[in-house]
Amino acid sequence: MKGVILHGGSGTRLRPITHTEVKQLLPVAGKPVSEYALEDMIEIGIREINIIVGSVGADAVTGYYGDGSKWGVSITYTHQPKPLGIAHAVGLTEDFVAGDTFVVYLGDNLLNGGIGKLSDAFGEGRFDALVALCRVNRPQSYGVAELEEGRIVRLVEKPKQPKSNLALVGVYFFRPDIFDVIRTLKPSARGELEITEAIQKLIEEGRNVGYQEIKGWWKDTGTTEEILDANRLVLDEIERQIDGKVASETGIIGRVRVMSGASVDAQSVIKGPCHIGSGTEITHSVIGPNTSIGNNCRISGVEIEDSIIMDGCIIEGNREMRLYESIIGTSCKISKNSGIKRASKMIVGRDSDIAV
């Protein structure tokens, strides 16, 4: 089996952060969102992976993942020049798949528990395609599966009046026959080749299309709220790990990761769950809970909770700044220039310099 990770899209719902950052590379608990997809594939034994990149951020993606040797896999890349739909993107990988079975994983999706059960179900059921489903509160925002007698009979993309609350999760298992179907598709009303239509054609042809319902959590990290919620959920599963320098163990509360080369002074408190990246210095601050601090940051005199701080940031609060539910982009500088203590919620793009 081979793996395909979709890394396209401009992330319009995540602006302003995606004006300067690639949405699938936004960090959750210290790692890019799409790295969890990669790890899920590796866990089920996949060693050949193709990442589909678009016109936005391709260099950042290839720069981060390289040839895959860091993870012990082979990674190649396919360029989708325009956002013409998931099915179009999948169709571009036919030469890479080369007649094998394969899994398609949307790079901005996170699944609790990995994809092992999905892979097992796909193989044991001898399905032509298998989709993952999850019960959601607002199914009209997703592709929705309609079932009859335990079988999928219809897939509808963002129905106005959904007949079920079973949303399509961004993980699909296929046999190579799907490429023949994709070649017959016409663009939808929004100008895209829809993967839901491709799977629907398989159903109408009487092919064996299965499903597996996700029992744990699933996140489509398409908004700042969803990214922050995903960060909370992943952090909630971490174990305590102190590899950096901590001046006072009493200041480390709960499940906290302090990575190698990081330091926390005696005047700081870190409340878990929390991740502190390598090379980061924390002084006179209260960090957490539900907070991820990137690598090589300098944090001083500030309270931060329920937030994501990306690599290389400098935040100097003079003990009068509190950040909450914030995402601070790479290499930003945030400083305090007044004597009034206030709480701030910020979504800030890369290389910004802000005084509050």
UniProtKB/TrEMBL annotation:
EC numbers on record: 2.7.7.24
S-adenosyl-L-methionine is among the record's keywords: no
InterPro entries: G1P_thy_trans_l, GMPPB_C, NTP_transferase_dom, Nucleotide-diphossugar_trans
Residue stretches making up the Nucleotidyl transferase domain: 2-236
One Pfam family hit: GMPPB_C
Mannose-1-phosphate guanyltransferase C-terminal domain span: 270-352
Superkingdom to which the source organism belongs: Archaea
Keyword Transferase tagged: yes
Enzyme class: transferase
CDD domains: G1P_TT_long
Keywords carried by this UniProt record: Nucleotidyltransferase, Transferase
A single MF term (Gene Ontology): glucose-1-phosphate thymidylyltransferase activity
Protein name (database record): Glucose-1-phosphate thymidylyltransferase
Organism: Candidatus Sysuiplasma superficiale
Lineage per the UniProt record: Archaea, Methanobacteriati, Thermoplasmatota, Thermoplasmata, Candidatus Sysuiplasmatales
